[in-house]
Amino acid sequence: MKSRKGLVLLTVVLFGALFFAFRYTSSGYTDVVVSQRQRLLSAVGSLLESQHYSPKNINNDFSKKLFQKYLDDLDGDKSFFLQSDINALKKHELTLDDEIKGAEIKFAPEAGLIYEKRLNAVGVLYKEILSKPFDFSVDETAMLDSDKLGYAANEAEQKDRWRKLLKYYTLERFVELQEQREQNKGKKDFEVKTDEELEKEAREKVLKAMTKRFDRIKNTIKEEQRFNTYINSVTSLMDPHTDYFAPVEKRSFDEQMSGRFYGIGAQLTEDDYGVKIASIQPGGAAFKSGELSVNDVILKVAQGAAEPVDVAGYATEDVVKLIRGNKGTEVRLTVKKSDGLIKTIILQRDEIVLDETFARSAVVNEGKEKIGYIWLPEFYADYERENGNRCSEDVAKEIIKLKKENINGLVIDLRNNGGGSLYEVIQMVGLFINQGPVVQVRDRDGKANVYGDQRPGTLYDGPLAVLVNELSASASEIFAGAIQDYRRGVVIGSTSTYGKGTVQKTVPFGKVVDFNSGRTDMGAVKLTFQMFYRINGGSTQLKGIEPDIVLPDSYEYLKIREKDVPHALPWDQIEKATYLTWHKDYGHDQVIQAENERVKENSSLNLLKDNLIWLSKLNEEPASLNLDKYKSLQKRIRSTVSQNNTLLRLKEEMNIVPAVSDQDKFFNNPDKNKGERYQAWLRALKTDMHIGETVKVLTGLSSEFTKATAAVK
Fold this sequence. Notes:
Strand content: 15-25%
Shape: globular
Distance between the termini: 46 Å
Number of helices: 21
Structural class: alpha+beta
Number of strands: 26
């Protein structure tokens, strides 16, 4: 989680002083007094030991773990390295702590050379394998879970693994092509192909996909990127949320937090011809230039007058990172127009506001009741600008809109919200409580501070529900936990949220290159330096928030929570803070009990739960490469997934509309594509089972509150 902006200038100066000029070759460091990368690695190690919340000793044990962690990060599928390669690198297993503390860096460059060698070899191997037909009548399997595999003992075993993997990919496409043939038989102009022809076409599709994958690896995961991965291997051994951001990654992180970036105002897409322009935003640099058009294929990207980068083989996200940059800087795109003309277009980066990632709302008409709904994708905060978007302020604006609609209850949807600003979540809880603590934060020395809402009064004091799932993390868990501890509302969702209870800050390295943002030429470390706790004293670390009402969802049984991640910090608790629970009774306990009993007896939800358990276990089993067995399993999987999709959708659409003040944004948006996306979002809400169940809970709370109020009168 990112704390409020205010990085100490002294930190920049101290770490910035560590870097010097260098010369580095693919075989190692030569002719340098002090290597820049060595200094960076040592500085990161020093930072981790001196400032991390719970640092691990950088010793031989740490070195052994780092040895395996980097190999996993480099080749997680165990697709490239052989066991003999690992044996050859074993001499470095106990020396990596020495490298972090100043010894010459040898392991990462040597591992990189072997990786490139194996990458090139497999690049030839997969083409050879795909040049021959597969026999799908053979009864054999492929283990797709790399955690259950060791490194291949030799090249023959590696070849057989790749053969099975490519056969599986081809089998998938072969069956798809067979199904298309069955669906289109008898249709005019449809060519009916034999199984032999379809098998060949399937292999060709896999060949194209694999070539694209290998081109991307070769073009984007070069020596510099591998070294950044190595530093991230070091940081992640402390905990999963301590990361190193290279300069371009730091910029992306800042953009995500603020919801703003500097670019050309165009959306990109990807097809067989490469990365191309999908749409152009009115008012942006691309729009103003009048030179870029939809479907222009991007061939090269240059930073000003610098040497352009050929983006053949790049994925969309790789090209986006090259096009975005700092305020007012120049980017040059070499594009191929629809008529074949190749042209270089010079653009100056303008500010782009990602308002589609900001809070938005709608009104659910449920009988005589009106329920407000607010979707918050993350706890964003733009502290670089005085008037930058802050999620607490944006949510407040949405609440004001909804209050004008005379709502009887409010849903805050934090599903898939991975967190964000600690300061903003405190401010947001304050919209619903009348002063009081929100979260406790403890530092590495064991000192705990309580942070809370200092403002008297509330913006909204009616019935409230918070919708979460297993991907609701960090700030989302602070919010849901505080609402639950105050008994201010009802938390609804999967059995527990993600379970991230750590707080991060960014520490920059090197010289400042953009004074608007404070970004530096050597990136930054996002460092875990505190733990946060609920006001009831319990940590959300590993355990997350357990909802008052549990509803199954598609991700429930997948191993994607903090407790499933290596090197996660343990759970603990501290003393409870002093606070008073919410003073208004909305029939909280009665409604929760009634809903939980209804869910328990709901045969559809129980069936959904059983289906999800079965599907999650499939990931652990070897995949059949036999056509008949594959088809049989796929038939059952599709039937189950289809059934799940039906169970997760309401049979009848809810009546959901935008607030009156948002009508133009949805239906008369000057950016037609954006307006269509808003309307698609609205349509998706109407059949969302989780929203439907939450609305029922809120109508129950509203009804109970009305009864209680009438009784008092």
